[in-house]
Specification:
Its EC number is 2.7.7.7, 4.2.99.18. It is found in: Cytoplasm. Keywords: DNA damage, DNA repair, DNA replication, DNA synthesis, DNA-directed DNA polymerase, Methylation, Nucleotidyltransferase, Sodium, Transferase, Ubl conjugation. It holds the Pfam family DNA_pol_B_palm. This is DNA polymerase beta. The protein has 24 helices and 17 strands. It folds into four domains: 151 residues, DNA polymerase, domain 1, CATH 1.10.150.110; 96 residues, Beta Polymerase, domain 2 (2-Layer Sandwich), CATH 3.30.460.10; 66 residues, Beta Polymerase, domain 3, CATH 3.30.210; 241 residues, Alpha-Beta Barrel (TIM Barrel), CATH 3.20.20. It has a seven-stranded parallel beta sheet. It starts with a helix and ends in a 5-residue tail after the last helix. With 586 residues, the protein is of the alpha/beta class. It binds one DNA strand of 29 nucleotides through helix 2, helix 4, helix 7, helix 9 and helix 14.
Length: 586
DNA sequence: GCCGTTTTCGGCCCGACTGTTTTCAGTCG
């Protein structure tokens, strides 16, 4: 699907890069900000023009708004075309590289007449750059390294991997250094973003131990390179399973902890906004605390709560800190009461050896009953179209149902719910007939074929089946591996509301599908969501955590998530839909 | 280019580290 928002965001990012090169920092900032805002919009930007809401978005002023309208009308932005002529094409990309700032590139361009990446590499290697005033061998070395590093920094890792690495490093530092008092991973890991660039670790310790801590950190066995090393901050490249990651460590005093945590958790936009508010109130916030701007007297900083409180705000959960309205909500004391892992009462998308799972239903029961305090789980194996996954036909599904009944008898209550992940076929019909689906406790319907077309029509048709309770992994995306197929999510959310169908938040770490933007939209529309692990083995049940994080980033509360309720609540949801369609209900 | 219960003009977050300097500019997050 043609995504005008993404196109516009990319243009504004490039314009920001050009303005940076032209040393117009603040204009660059404005365009950067606009690009982020447009990326985050839940709807096609053309809808905002039509409804007149474009001008009401904070960060989009008259000039950028008129450029958006120009692009929508003509497919071009005249100013962008003009700007491109002022900067060598390659430099728009180069400005993002570590070690390549606007001043550096401009000097190289002006004094050596260099305008392509190739010429630049050559000049770096043959010593021409090194001879420029203000340059030297180290700077040239770092620029060459920056070119190499670029590939690494572009490859972001998924949240799950970042959480594993974070836990490992926390444990390593804590056990190796008794001098560390507090330790936390901040940055986008703490905000639980879908993908992570760098890992930021914060610790507190007495001043005298700083050099010892930095020595230990920079010599951890996974460290392949030390980028910077100082008493307060060090940066290294670490290698995990062949993948390189930048890891930063910062040391603070105990009374600075809250301010440091707040500062380094970000996001950048959230912090900038927060600082603006502080400034209006005559305060100054930095990573060491909140200060009176005039007297420099410290008034807060030991806890994050105190930092927010000092500017008149309630503490904001890290998952919300993206400057998407959370600061305003905090001011009004109207922050959502976000769903938590402990609220989850069961898992409604689980595969067993009946299809492509690797453990039997019996093993799943033993494991889940021991490790999780769930009230129910639904076994939802694949249907027959999924031949490679040994999908179930009607006969085998009935056998599976019988096995579940027997197992429940042994448990003493209906802990395991019978279910299916039924394929949505090309025409939107389902892989099993209604009379079979009607016998099941829970029906997930998913698209597993024809990934190269817009599948909105298929999904909506599936929702119109009275026995379909939830749509599984909506877009089919696999982060970093495969783009999702196009889906008109506004239409899907509307259909979900009208038909009484839930939407799945698939917690597989590479899926996280639907994403936070659409979760928020669904929540706003009052559409119910289900967080599911789509487990194929016992380890996968741990992914529930990921699903909850993504739900929280989408502002979801406990009441929005169907599987925070009892099975009775879920039955009520199922019955509601069947009633609407006038079919027999449980 | 955006924004405003101290502003419609004059600000725009701010501190750490590095490299090239010899007191600081550039970059980064």
């Amino acid at each position: 699907m043609y995504n005008i928002n993404r196109d516009l965001a990319n243009i504004f990012k490039k314009m920001a890069a050009i303005y940076e090169f032209l040393d117009d920092r603040f204009r660059a900032m404005a365009y950067q900000r606009a690009a982020h805002i447009i990326e985050d919009l839940p709807e096609d930007i053309r809808n905002y023009i039509v409804s007149g809401k474009l001008y009401m978005i904070r960060g989009i002023g008259p000039s950028i708004a008129s450029k958006i309208e120009e692009y929508v009308k003509t497919g071009k932005i005249q100013k962008f075309e003009e700007l491109k002529k002022q900067v060598p094409e390659d430099f728009i990309e180069l400005i993002d590289l570590p070690g390549f700032g606007p001043k550096t590139l401009k000097k190289i361009h002006d004094e050596l007449g260099i305008s392509t990446k190739e010429e630049l590499v050559k000049a770096l290697k043959d010593g021409r750059v090194e001879k420029l005033e203000g340059f030297g061998p180290k700077k040239v070395e770092n620029m060459l390294k920056g070119l190499q590093m670029y590939e690494i920094s572009k490859r972001r890792i998924i949240l799950w991997e970042a959480l594993q690495i974070s836990e490992y490093l926390k444990e390593k530092l804590k056990s190796g250094l008794k001098e560390i008092k507090k330790i936390e991973v901040a940055g986008s890991v703490r905000r639980r973003k879908e993908t992570i660039g760098d890992i930021d670790i914060l610790v507190t310790a007495e001043d005298k131990y700083r050099s010892k801590i930095m020595d230990f950190f920079t010599s951890i066995e996974e460290v392949s390179e030390v980028l910077v090393k100082g008493p307060k901050k060090s940066s290294v490249i670490m290698k995990f399973e062949g993948k390189e990651r930048q890891v930063d460590l910062r040391i603070f005093n105990d009374d600075e902890w809250g301010a440091a945590l707040q500062y380094f958790t970000g996001s950048k936009q959230h912090n900038v906004h927060l600082r603006e508010i502080a400034k209006e109130k005559g305060l100054k916030i930095n990573e060491y605390g909140v200060f009176d701007a005039k007297t420099d007297k410290k008034i807060a900083g030991e806890t994050e709560e105190s930092v927010y409180q000092s500017v008149g705000l309630k503490w904001i959960p890290p998952e919300l800190r993206e400057d998407r309205g959370e600061i305003e909500a905090s001011m009004r004391d109207a922050l959502p009461d976000l769903v938590e892992l402990k609220d989850i009462k069961g898992d409604l998308h689980v595969h067993s050896t009946w299809s492509d799972g690797v453990v039997s239903i019996k093993e799943i029961i033993d494991f889940v009953k021991k490790k999780y305090r769930y009230d129910y789980i639904a076994i939802t194996d694949h249907s027959k179209s999924q031949r490679v996954a040994h999908g179930l036909d009607e006969g085998r599904l009935l056998e599976e149902i019988n096995e579940i009944k027997l197992l429940n008898k042994m448990i003493g209550f209906d802990f395991v719910k019978t279910g299916i992940e039924v394929d949505i076929l090309l025409d939107g019909s389902l892989d099993l007939p209604d009379d079979v689906l009607s016998k099941l406790d829970w029906v997930v319907a998913s698209v597993h074929s024809h990934f190269n077309r817009d599948n909105t029509d298929r999904i909506i048709k599936a929702m119109e089946n009275p026995y379909v309770n939830v749509i599984g992994h909506m877009t089919g995306r696999l982060i970093g591996l495969r783009e999702g197929y196009p889906v008109d999510m506004n239409a899907v959310i509307k259909a979900a509301k009208e038909t009484g169908t839930a939407l799945e938040i698939n917690a597989q770490p590479r899926r996280m599908d639907i994403d936070e933007i659409w979760i928020r939209k669904a929540v706003e529309e009052g559409v119910k969501l289900v967080i599911s692990t789509d487990a194929h083995n016992l380890g996968n049940f741990a992914f529930m955590e990921i699903g909850v994080y993504i739900a929280r980033r989408g502002w979801a509360e406990k009441k929005d998530i169907l599987n925070t309720g009892s099975w009775k609540d879920i039955q009520r949801f199922i019955t509601e839909k069947r009633k609407r369609f006038g079919v027999k209900y449980v």
